[in-house]
Every structure is written in structure tokens, then in C-alpha cells.
């Protein structure tokens, strides 16, 4: 590593050098706040005439290559945002000088264009540009530079989206500020006195990932998406990174289906769900996402050899499950997609990791399509009943991930996943994680204020769909909403007071928010004060719904009619959101299995710390087709015959299979490593904990 204090303008304008933003870096992301801060620093420094201003560090790495034209590419590990922004300001100054003439200015358009700040003047192709951005920024940035060279203002961007990119917006910001200045010379002076520490890393001896993790660009913290992407790609030689990005990482971004500033949020949500599945039942905090990701990758040996590509494919697969779960899409199967959308409408984010695990099990043929649909129906019933019964939502934060772990363990043991899931839910009876029974569910439907319940829209739409198949999608979209039949202003009208009987205030209070008094309407507002006939007339002018039958077919709308409709809707709800059935014998059996599954949270390090496995113990492959051995080291790791070491038995076994040319994958190392010839499996040993 070589670190020197440099003037940033001198660093940028060095001959036969260009900065290259690696493909794994995030796109240019500075907004107005960061640009204005840099502008103020430059202007303040330029006006003082005798000071310099330190703007942080620029970290680059050279892979030893040089182009045929003699230009050396320097990969920007840290500093992309500042250098790009400064070049945008230089473009703004060049345009200003062209329009206002060079007289009285300490710089000229020709100096900026031909002085090495924007281009290597006598070089062509990629070598011509002093900065090469990544991804969608690249073409527009080069078009900007080309336009300045040609003496025009039009960047020649291929499409409108690029014209409204951060590059275009920030250039416009600088042009407006330069135009409004009386002393433009101070901007040029300030740029000349900007200082940085230039840190040049040596390929092969300095670890750029360590540097990257410890540095954040000024004013714009690195996201988990940045850190994870860089960790996956940065371990490969520079020459391979572009192809790896296109082949392995870009498909993940496309699978998540978002771009721009929303990508980081979507990826962070995905990686949190992925790690929840990978670490279950052990919890982790959101701020621990990247360290947890690194531990997961390193402990399973994915950083060894060429296995990061295998891991990237695994990430892509789970990104597909995440996208399916959150968007309610499943290619080739409308029924599964519809089931996912129904769960999505319940808005329980903690369910997404479990859905990902179920989708992975189905894709890997651990259970049938019918079993998957049954489990999705059960999960929908569980979540909806809990919502209606106002069960403690926070109780699911740890419980649902633990179900993902239970499903995973059952898959590995080739057990009945559907029955295990049902048993796990039913066995929480009497706890905050319970599956509300029929009596509790119906009681809540009868007594709670359903107008104030966020799920009433979904309930009525689902009941309608149960009668008229296909109605759900339309009713959950557009302008449909929940409306009272007995209106909010009923007590102001004599007709309603008479209908409500001897104690209209009490009847009104008990009936207004009752399920039986609520309907779906696509009108934009509720008629607060109107007669019953007006309500029916309003609906007659709209699309008729089956859920209105109990309203339109009665002569009077009173407390008895509302209660009767509540009972009918509650009965329909019971038939839609069913309580699954399982024999007491099976429930007891799965309860015992559940206690045993708790041991699945133990790590190999736990076994070593407890003395259950010891240094120099020999682990033998239990697979008769693939004979092999490993040894327990003095630090509690599993060392294969080739010297590679692992913290996790499954990662060790997957790598062992690779060393013997086996095509099999996805085997649980806890079940396939024995301690000694004919000894217990590691899974049997961890049950002792």
C-alpha cells in the first residue's frame, strides 16, 4: 500500500491514466445535499486564496495491466462519488467558459477539455475517457464528455431516463450555480486547492475488500447491497469481474426487479430474509446483516476456490423466491401465485422467509404441488385468524423463522413437511403464538369493531371470491373500500332511530362497526347520513356483489338483521380460513420431534466446546457411494484430506463431494458425517446437547 497527499486536480489529470469504477460498485448516487456540501467547500476554499481543503481519501488498485495505447487503468475502490462530481463541475465550467468567453477567466474550455481532466486527448476507445463509470451511468457520462469536446450542450443521451439521471440533475445544479456567481474564478481556485490522500493498493498483497468495508464515501453510507455485492465479486481477478457481474450478479438484480435508489432497500430486505432462512432458528439483528452474511459465506467454505459462483447461483435462486413471495408471482402456476398474493395482502413481513423456504422445498421436489398449496392455505388461515383475534404480532418475529428451520430440517430428513408445519402451529395452543380455534375466531368476528380492522376489506373480498370465483383480484384493487350500511350519522334521522328500537344509542353502538353492517363499495365516499332505501339505491347503481344479498333482500335494517348477517359471514369465514386437523397422536409425536429439532440450532463449534467431538477425531462419510474422511482440528474445524477447513459440516460435506467428482449436492453434512467407522452421525451427537 502506498499513501500520499495529493491535489485532486493533479491526480485526475495525470497522463496515460484512467479511473475505472468496478462493476460491483453502486452507480453514481450523490444527490443535491452531497453536491451542495462539496460546492460550498470548494467556494469557501477558493475565496480564502491561501488555504487548502482536505476531502478524504481516494483508494485505487492497479492489476498490473496496461492497454495497447499505454494507458493504465486504476480501479476506484473508494472515491467514485467525489471524482465523478468534480468532473461534472469541470464540465459545467467548460460550458460556462464557452458561452461567456475566456476573457477574465483563469481557465478556458480548451484547458479543461484538452488538459487531461476529462480525456486522454490522443487516445481512443475506452482509453480516451479519464473516468469510466459502471452500468447504466457509463453511456450517458461518455455522451456528456463527447458533447463538451464537440462544443455543445446536448449530452446526446439515448433516452429520457438517462437525461433525468443523477448525473444530469447534478450537472444542471452546477451549471445553475456557476451561472449565478459573480466570481466564477473562485470555483477554479478552490478546485486547485482540494487535497486528498491517494491510497494505491498493490494487487495480490493488499485486500481491497478490507479497505472498502472500513470506508464510506463522504455523506453517503454504504448499503448492505454495496457490501455484499463487493464481497462476492471483489475476490476474483479484475479481468474476470465484469463477466462475473453480468453472469452471476446482474441476474440477481433483474430478479429483484427494481432499479435506482429503491434497489438498495429491496436488496437489503431480500438479504435479511435470506439470512433469516440460513441462520434459523438463530436470530440476528438488521444491523448485523453484513457481518452475518460474511460468517455464513466463510463458515460454509463458499469463499474457497471457485465456490463463490455456486453461492451466487444460490443467492439468485432465493432472490426468485423472495420476489415471488413479496410480489405474489409464480411463473407457470396461477394457483400458487394467487395463494402467495393472498398471504401478501395480510401484510405480515415476518412470513416471507418461511415462504422462501417452502418455495425452495417445492422447487427441489421435497413435497408436491398439492402439499405446497395446502401449506399456503394453512399459513393464510393462521395469519388471518391471528389478525382477527388481535393476537400479539411481535410473537411471530422469532416464531416464523423457527418454522423455516423446522421445515428445512424435515426436508433434509425426508419427513412429511406439511404435517410438521401443521403440528408446529397447533402445538402452540395456549401461547402467544397460538393458532386461534374456531370458537375464538367466531367470537372475534361477532364482537370486535370490524370497521376499524384493517383486514375487513380482505375478508369481504375473500368471501365474495368464495361465491364468485375470480372476484378477489378486482376487489383488492382500484377504488373498492368498506362502507357502513347503518350509516355513521344514523342517530340524526328518525327513521333509523325507530329501526334501532327502544334503546337506539346502545343498538347503534353495538351495530355500527359489526361485520354484518359492513359492505364493499367502489364509490369514493361513505354516505354518512342517508336512509336505508338510499343505501340500497346506491348499491343498485353499482356492480352487484353476492355479499350484498343479505342487505338488499330485507325490508328493514335493524340490529337483528345486522346480527344475522354477521353470523352468515362468520360461518363463511370459518369455511374459508379453516383450522387444520391433526390427530392427538401425531401432534404428540411432532411435539417430541420439535424438541429434538431445537438441537438443530447447535453448531459444530458447540459440539467441540462441549467435548462431544475432540481434536483428531476422524469423521467418515456415511455415503457408501463416496468414501472419504475428514479430521477435527485443534481449533474445532473440519479439515478435509486436501487441507481445506470448514466450520460447518454441510459446507465441508459439499466440498468433499466436489473433491471426489460427485454431482450430488444439497446433502446435510450433519447426517452424512459419522464420528469414526460405524459411529454416530453428527446429528445424533448434537442431540446430546
Instruction: Determine the structural class based on helices, strands and strand pairing.
Output: alpha+beta
- Nearest-integer average pLDDT: 85
Overall number of structural domains: 4
Strand content: 5-15%
The helix fraction, in percent, is: 40-55%
Terminal CA distance reads 47 Å
Number of strands: 13
Major beta sheet, specifics? Answer: 6 strands, mixed
The order of strands across the largest sheet is 1-6-3-4-2-5
- Which regions contain 5 or more consecutive residues with pLDDT less than 50? 155-161
Shape: flat
- Number of contiguous helices: 32
The whole-angstrom Rg is 33 Å
3D structure, described in words:
Helix 14 packs across helix 15. The chain contains 32 helices and 13 strands. 52% of the residues lie in helices and 9% in strands. It is flat and about 90 Å long. It has four domains: 2-220, no CATH class; 238-440, no CATH class; 454-576, no CATH class; 602-686, no CATH class. The chain is an alpha+beta fold.
Tell me briefly what this model is.
The chain has 4 domains: 2-220, no CATH class; 238-440, no CATH class; 454-576, no CATH class; 602-686, no CATH class.
Q: Any chance you could write out the topology, listing elements then pairs?
A:
Layout: E1 2-7, H1 8-12, E2 17-20, H2 32-48, E3 53-62, E4 72-78, H3 80-100, H4 109-114, E5 131-132, H5 137-150, H6 160-163, H7 166-180, H8 185-192, E6 194-202, H9 208-214, H10 224-234, H11 238-256, H12 261-279, H13 289-299, H14 308-327, H15 334-344, H16 352-363, H17 369-388, H18 396-412, H19 417-426, H20 438-447, H21 456-467, H22 471-475, E7 481-484, H23 494-499, H24 504-511, E8 518-521, H25 532-540, H26 549-552, H27 559-576, H28 584-597, H29 604-609, E9 618-621, E10 629-632, E11 638-640, E12 645-646, H30 649-659, H31 669-672, E13 673-675, H32 682-686
